[in-house]
Specification:
459 residues, alpha+beta, Chitinase A, domain 3, four-stranded antiparallel sheet, 17% strand
Amino acid sequence: MSSRRPHLAALLLCLPLVWSGAQAQALRPSTQLGSPLNTQRSAAPTNEPRTADYIVALVNSEPITNHDVRQRLLRIEQQIAQQGGAMPPRDELARQVLEQLVNERAQLQQAAEVGIRVDEATLAQAEQSVAAQNQMTLEEFRRRVNAEGIDISRLRSELRNQILLQRVREREVESRVRVTEADIDDFIRERQNSTQIGNLELNLAHVLILVPEDASEDRIRALQARAQDVADRARSGNDFSLLARQFSEAPEGAAGGEFGMRPADRLPSLFVEATQALPAGAIAGPLRSAAGFHVLKVLEKRQAGLPDMVVTQTRARHILLRPSPQLSTEAAAARLNEFRQQIINGQGSFPALAREHSQDGSAREGGDLGWASPGQFVPEFEEAMNALRVGDISPPLVSRFGVHLIRVDERRDTALTTREQRDIVRGLVREQKADEALVSWAQDVRGRAFVEYREAARP
């Protein structure tokens, strides 16, 4: 289904006009993926100014030039500045950029060795996707690239390299990753048995009986008795939210006393100590603090890293038009706006228009995407869908797949079955193992490459 998260989505975050903050973070100092830059040098840097480009490193006899380092460095600095981050020292950042380029060059050589190729059709489709992500037609995107002084052939070369890197990483990592039922059991057991407060999340409801600072002993006993009565009623099955509205003197009392799901370290230690060993539904208290007496109910409890027991699912329909040489992004959006107006005016139905016009596998189902859990669609599509109320139709939305018209038909809160929870955990474990396998593979490729550092980069 075209709106689903693609295997190659990550590569689109590495391009000049959609530069990702994760890329800058990946340049933190590290010794994991290569040797320090002060080794294997054949010539010492000089202080003389250089005007011509020159080789700074060889990777299996393939050169990396000072221009390569400068181009990557400038883009990363631009991204850091746009995000308002602290700018590392330029020389240090340049060294990290060079090491990243060395690793990438070795991996690209590995891709060539195993026969991975990127054909022109794939490259054209990827370029179109980048343009769509930037809310542009392909022609507008190329004009923007030229206006920013970026050579389009160089951009396409970088795009091809990013696809190659993604494919070789997926190929090598996939063969190394296996997730067994025992792995899933271990993951769940580890999270559930964790005693670290940092892993615990609680949703508590609260009733506070205030005790004035100058209260007499008799007054304190009377207030404690009131708190005990609230606790007894709660343990007898009375609706805790009604008790909170009736008795609580805390700000959240009017809303039923619920705090909402929070990490344990963001709750008072008194509350955490009283509830961390209790199951959902249990009552704690009365507890005494400087403010007064507290009665708590554990509404939800989970260890960080485990999937939610209940998720909000959305059932939506969409019509997808894919830009092409015959249909620009603007023309596709205009056509979808016409469809939207027809539906609103009662002159057409969404399912019928989807069957007739949508360029997506869901067309035969009238654009019905079925029930979708959070994270099932690409971010730009999901963000637009989540902003709609049931029955609303979105304006035309440009995603990496094309231009969409979205209608939300239903929403529901649904409890995940044990199998569904295990499927989510399986994905978490696979992602964890894939990250470890990628680091191991990258270290192996880097270790087998012959790298000769020449002159220091001059950014």
